[in-house]
From TrEMBL:
It comes from Streptomyces pseudovenezuelae. Keywords: Membrane, Transmembrane, Transmembrane helix. The chain crosses the membrane at residues 117-136, 142-166, 178-197, 237-255. This is ABC-2 family transporter protein.
């Protein structure tokens, strides 16, 4: 029975996508356009130079395209299922999360797992197509591929806890639309989605090192393209693991505090 509840929770958002073929077509078109534009941009930037900020043209293009594909891991229309914390707080139905067989923290985690697995199929499919077309370079060795996979997993765990913290803030702020927009921008900027962090000033790189965003995407992709050598991989993985543990403990504390604010009449 517990496995059945877990399966139903994990498929909430993916079912919303699979039952809307036009939405899936739009995602496919947008992803293809993003990959083409990003690859064209970075090829153009390197048209008259060899190496910039320690990156060759192949490394820069591979990084940028992989960043676009990685964004699909969590970029789903969660509002379609009307099951976000923000919506439940707005309609006063968050109390039902505490009446279900699954605890709210487990339900939230399982639903996010389903979303990430669904997004992973998109990212993996796009990666294989780009790899076959020569848009991205393959990993330099099996060891690099293995370290990249582990780092990407840790990075997604960090990202989950960051987004969970924002959801939990709804228990105190009720609406957090502005905070969501700010966090998404900060996440994309400080994690290297818009551009590799090595193109930014030294003070910016130092500042981002004290925040968890860099551990979500910049570290895995840097390991993949070889910007971070394997000899430094253990240190980077340790930093990612630290953020996973720290954010886990912090969000666990917030779950306990949030439960005290839920009343039987709703949010």
């Amino acid at each position: 029975m517990a496995a059945l509840h877990a399966w139903r929770a994990a498929r909430v958002t993916p079912l919303g996508e699979l039952h809307a073929p036009p939405r899936m077509t739009a995602v496919l078109v947008r992803l293809a356009v993003q990959v083409v534009l990003v690859a064209s941009l970075w090829h153009g930037l390197y048209a008259h130079t060899g190496t910039t900020a320690g990156l060759s043209e192949g490394q820069a293009v591979s990084y940028a395209v992989l960043a676009v594909l990685a964004s699909r891991l969590r970029e789903l229309d969660q509002y379609a299922g009307r099951d976000t914390v923000l919506q439940h707080m707005h309609f006063g139905t968050i109390v039902y999360w505490y009446l279900r067989p699954l605890p709210p923290q487990r339900y939230h985690a399982l639903r996010a797992l389903g979303e990430q697995l669904y997004g992973f199929t998109w990212a993996l499919g796009g990666y294989l197509v780009c790899l076959a077309a020569g848009v991205v370079d393959p990993p330099r060795s099996a060891a690099v591929a293995g370290v990249f996979a582990l780092s990407l997993l840790l990075g997604q765990c960090v990202l989950y806890f960051v987004l969970l913290t924002l959801d939990q803030l709804c228990f105190w702020t009720v609406r957090n639309n502005a905070a969501m927009l700010i966090l998404i921008f900060a996440q994309n900027l400080l994690s290297g989605v818009y551009a590799p962090l090595w193109f930014f000033p030294d003070w910016f790189i130092t500042l981002s090192g004290f925040l968890p965003f860099q551990a979500t995407l910049s570290v895995p992709l840097s390991l993949y393209i070889g910007r971070i050598p394997l000899s430094d991989a253990f240190e980077q993985l340790a930093v990612q693991a630290f953020w996973v543990v720290a954010l886990f403990l912090f969000t666990r504390f917030l779950w306990r505090r949030a439960a005290r604010r839920v009343i039987s009449q709703g949010g």
